[in-house]
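Hi everyone,

Forwarding the result from last night's run.
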Amino acid sequence: MKFYNSRLVVGLVLILAGVLSLLQATGLVTIGNQLHPAIVSSVFGLAGLLFLGILINHRQDWWVLFPGMALSGLSVIIMLDAFAPQIAWASGAVFMAMLALSFWLVYLINRNAWWAIIPGGVLTTLAAIILSDQLSVLNGGTIFFLGLAATFGLVYFVTRQKWAWIPGVVMLGMSAVTSSLIGHYSAYLWPVILIGIGLVIAYRSFRAHS
């Protein structure tokens, strides 16, 4: 019997984290106030690395990416809040991006898990929305629909599933409607979208007959 059982260690870490969180929530322990942020961040970071390290010998256990990336994300945002308050506004985007990365890595590890593209794309889009609220590049609605359009477009090109391009095109159209940058060009946008849809349908019809 192996002395070191990675899954047992993971279970113990989760139990410990749950107990500490419960104590923190009830006010019996105030860990965040008593420990230096670097220590708290390191604990979360090491816990995240523990989960991610399981993939080295157990690639089939891709589920460890989710708690691993979540804990690593918490580690990063604690460090940002404590030592870089001037960019702490990006903490939410960083955490969403780390969660998104976990789904992208699931797909890279197992190409049959194409479903991971959808939550990965949605979370990436949410991260972009948080950043856009601060940078004022595009409005959140436009970014949301553009992100979903790109996500379903990627699903279509990866899996060649016919249904995926339909919500992709619809989301692209919605992004045009909500965009604050199209201005007087909106009169030209819908004809271009219709032409694009027509070209896709014609191309698919041509390939089917050939």
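The chain has two domains: 1-111, 138-210.

Cheers,
N.
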